[in-house]
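so my prof wants the structure for this chain in the tokens format not the other one, which i didnt know existed until like an hour ago. anyway here's the sequence
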Amino acid sequence: MLSEKSARTVRATLPAVGGAIGEITPRFYDRLFAAHPALLRDLFNRGNQANGAQRQALGAAIVAFATATVSDPDVRPDAMLTRIAHKHASLGITPGQYRIVHQHLFEAIAEVLGDSLTAEAAAAWDEVYWLLANALIAIENRLYDSTGVLLGDTWRDYRVTGRHAETADVATFTVEPANGAPLPPARPGQFVSVQVQLTDGARQIRQYSLCGRGQFAVKRAGEVSGHLHDRVRPGDTLRVSAPFGDVTLDDGCGPLLLASAGIGCTPMTGMLAHLAAVSSPRRIIAVHADRSQATHAFRANLEQLTRKLDDACAHVFYECPDGDWPPDRIGLADLSGIAIAADTTAYLCGPLPFMRAVRTQLLERGVGAADIHYEVFGPDLWLA
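here's what i got, hopefully its the right format
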């Protein structure tokens, strides 16, 4: 909780900081990478830095946390913090890195705000930062403990034991620990980070949702995914993190909606596989949207898994279907013709516009906001 004095100062300066955050975050990253070039080479996603997505997500997170802290000081925004902490834990972030970020972030703030940043305002925002950082450190430490790894030591060598082409640009990789140890436990919906050494020597990292036990799917998009497609074959070794992720299948007995678009079907496939393995009696509705049958990864899995379940059905929408397809299933996903109970728990994964549209439709159908969960690939731009 912020001190009363700092809360008043943050509340008064939030419009100025929020208005300048789009300038602060680029300068922060420029300073950070100039001082620590290895962070851009071996930790941060170079693609998300180039397109500005990571800067936008960071700015949104800072402003959202500060806003929540002063508007409802007795309630910590744990949902946002937990999501960030899971991503950090999968990358092996350690407490000392927060001090590095603090230095360069506050230098950027001072540079952008200039004389308008009083000593009182700087102290108040310093308090905000350490509230955020220490909350994340505490959650990340618990995550490391729960996965049985030392602080930040999440990486292990895995051997690729299989590779299967799902579509022309999606491949599934099967891996196992290179030392012969058993696969670490994972909950349906979680992801792993995968690190590869690119031709320029950089060790870049991406997260991939698990679609089965020791399996993750990769769509060709960006330098790491392209490297996996072009260069990695069975017998090769990859650096893979322990499984992390806060969007996981609940253990309840109520109805479920699994809604995905494009490669967003990956975590949904993992969830469906688990439900089929335990012969779940739950009412399960799977909704998927894609360009066409040819681009629909795990299409056969969707059909097979829903048939295995006693009370499951699938609704698939294609923008440009190959051959005959039901007219009411051509175009973007539309839930209006699907019976969805108000007590449904929903999981969404896909492009942000798709998830926002589905969430809106679910809210209109009476599904509670707290029961709608979403997963994103890359920086979380929902708040932005």
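also thought this was worth mentioning. Residues 256-375 form a domain with the Rossmann fold fold (CATH 3.40.50.80).
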